[in-house]
Design goal:
184 residues, alpha+beta, Beta-Lactamase, globular, cell membrane, sCache_2
Length: 184
Amino acid sequence: MKFATTLGLMGLLLACGAVCAAAPSEADVGSAEETVNKVRAAARFLHEKGPSAYADFNQKDGKWVWKDSYVFVYDCRKDRMIAHPMRPDLVGKPILQITDNAGKYIFKELCKAGNEPRGGWVEYSWPKPGAGRLSRKISYATTADISFATGIQVSAGIYDEGITLPELAKVLERMSDPAKYPAM
């Protein structure tokens, strides 16, 4: 009798685990606002610490990885990935020729968006951490002002099938206006 109860509880736990893994809660999914805040904080951190801070962005369990998102750092001028916590195989490699399955040059678009005065959003296909398949990713990119280094940008993205680029532009506009979105 005790064995059947234990087996029943184990089955229930396994079933719940499969359901929970298949449908992450909102608490496990990064928002557009969090992404913009993290990227801007990362750009400030790089401005203050300089190139010595690059290593912090390669840590899979570091402060630049949260929920289902992470910050990555790249050099548009030198065509190199500087730091990527989920894909260390990309660090030091050329990036401007990387395309998604639709043929979109991901980093050419990110470099262009990051040079906008407020930064910008780029939509592309990319593997979501833990999903094992390509997902729709929209990354926010901005320039990092580092002494003696030009072309450095910082990005992070959200995996969201429903949000539109015009909605993300409104988020960015609101967050860039201190009267509408006071600094924290």
